[in-house]
């Protein structure tokens, strides 16, 4: 199917700067098979031309652009390939107004590296507005050809008319947890999409709506920079510096309903992850509670006009199972920790304490392992550090980020009587054969030094 061609001032000059032009224009349906069709179009166009040597790079670029358009916009994708003596220019138009954004995720993250890949392969790229959507364009110059002529317009962010925007007040926003959630949720939803693609004909459109909601949050919620130095992380990752007291989220009217879709897909994806149907592991319960809070705030403030409700982290929880020293983790013998003469405490990838040695119990002021096993490890983390702990664990599980792991650090801990004391400890991460992960903390022997802090009040 041929699309209706759109033109911007200077299009022909830009394409024809190096001579005659071959142009292919197609409308790709919102279907996973469209990516394969786009690849074949590139190979057909570049075959037996001076640009044939760049075919693999061009296929990779077009695959990424079309995939992103399908995933984040969900509707038809208009693809234009223009080959001239200057090289290849690709235009991909979709119905999403959100421009592509570089994600500074870890190189081991399951998502977020597409734009970096594109930038490494093309001569230049940018975007421009087209109706309610956008066009992403790239140019791949032929080193032996004439440079592309003319300038192309660019778009930095969608502009919203005031009457089209819902003003949502978010209070006490946990910035570190939000940043960690963005990376985890991006990888989680991408895998969820792949699993559901063949069985759910609506999944591309629903995923695009969820992606729109996530992009609105990503574009407006600040991201604190803690760096990677262990001392700097410990000094900066404290409340209230990693939360924002109040902010206004501007949500386009047509996007308000997308937050309910996001909440629904996250819930479904986490269920699949917990059942080991996805490679991405589940997230911390507090992170899930935060994402649900964000979605509900947008939906209910915009719909009923109810007053905002501040984010409040849930209290450290306990598993529903029986209290006792047995971790119940397949493929791991908890006596490695519980029977050790060293002061060891182990948690699973959901931040639940799964084993503790007698020496570690003494360090923390407990007598019975059953008083700790099954509880969230945040029960021994002072409240001002809890957000950093939750965010850090989430990022490590999803991308391997580990600025504090393997380093001896001195941290405050909450003792059994509610008092705080400082202890030196080293935490290591241990992957298990089942795909799960353990975190084992070894406390340095010696008496705990009081911090002088009052017991935490809840």
Automatic annotation (TrEMBL):
Pfam families tied to this protein: HATPase_c_2
Xref: InterPro entries: Anti-sigma-factor_SerPK, HATPase_C_sf, HATPase_dom, PAS-like_dom_sf
Domain of life: Bacteria
Keyword Kinase: yes
Keyword Kinase recorded: yes
A molecular function (GO) term: protein serine/threonine kinase activity
Domain annotation Histidine kinase/HSP90-like ATPase: ranges: 29-138
Record region (Disordered): 301-336
Keyword terms of this UniProt record: Kinase, Serine/threonine-protein kinase, Transferase
PANTHER family found in the cross-reference section: ANTI-SIGMA-F FACTOR RSBW, ANTI-SIGMA-F FACTOR RSBW-RELATED
Protein name: Histidine kinase-like ATPase domain-containing protein
Source species: Nocardioides psychrotolerans
């Amino acid at each position: 199917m041929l699309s209706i061609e759109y033109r911007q001032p200077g299009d022909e000059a830009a394409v024809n700067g190096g001579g005659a032009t071959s142009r292919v224009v197609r409308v790709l349906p919102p279907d996973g098979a469209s990516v394969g069709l786009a690849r074949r179009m590139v190979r057909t166009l570049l075959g037996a031309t001076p640009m044939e040597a760049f075919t693999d790079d061009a296929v990779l670029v077009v695959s990424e652009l079309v995939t992103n358009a399908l995933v984040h916009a969900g509707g038809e994708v208009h693809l234009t390939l223009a080959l001239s003596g200057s090289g290849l220019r690709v235009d991909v138009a979709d119905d999403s107004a959100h421009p592509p954004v570089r994600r500074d995720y870890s190189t081991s993250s399951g998502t977020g590296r597409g734009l970096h890949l594109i930038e490494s392969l093309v001569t230049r790229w940018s975007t421009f507005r087209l109706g309610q959507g956008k066009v992403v364009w790239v140019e791949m110059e032929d080193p032996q050809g004439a440079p592309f002529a003319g300038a192309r317009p660019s778009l930095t962010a969608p502009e919203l008319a005031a009457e089209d925007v819902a003003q949502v007040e978010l209070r006490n926003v946990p910035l570190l947890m939000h940043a960690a959630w963005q990376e985890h949720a991006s990888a989680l939803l991408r895998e969820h999409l792949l699993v559901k693609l063949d069985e759910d004909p609506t999944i591309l459109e629903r995923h695009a709506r969820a992606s729109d909601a996530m992009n609105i949050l990503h574009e407006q919620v600040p991201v604190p920079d803690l760096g990677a130095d262990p001392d700097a992380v410990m000094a900066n990752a404290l409340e209230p510096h990693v939360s924002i007291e109040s902010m206004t989220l501007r949500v386009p009217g047509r996007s308000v309903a997308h937050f309910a879709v996001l909440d629904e897909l996250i819930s479904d994806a986490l269920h699949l992850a917990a059942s080991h149907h996805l490679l991405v592991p589940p997230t911390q319960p507090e992170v899930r509670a935060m994402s649900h809070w964000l979605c509900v705030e947008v939906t209910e403030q915009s719909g009923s006009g109810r007053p905002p409700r501040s984010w409040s982290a849930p209290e450290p929880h306990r598993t529903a199972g029986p209290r006792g020293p047995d971790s119940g983790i397949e493929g791991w013998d908890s006596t490695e920790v519980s029977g050790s003469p060293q002061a060891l405490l182990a948690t699973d990838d959901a931040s639940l304490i799964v084993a503790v040695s007698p020496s570690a119990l003494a360090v923390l002021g407990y007598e019975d392992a059953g008083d700790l096993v099954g509880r969230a490890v945040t029960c021994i983390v002072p409240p001002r550090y809890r957000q950093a702990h939750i965010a850090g664990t989430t990022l490590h599980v999803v991308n391997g980020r580990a600025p504090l792991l393997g380093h001896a650090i001195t941290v405050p801990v909450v003792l059994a009587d509610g008092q705080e004391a400082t202890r030196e400890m080293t935490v290591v991460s241990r992957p298990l054969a089942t795909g799960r992960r353990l975190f084992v903390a070894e406390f340095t022997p010696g008496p705990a030094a009081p911090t002088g802090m009052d017991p935490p009040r809840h």
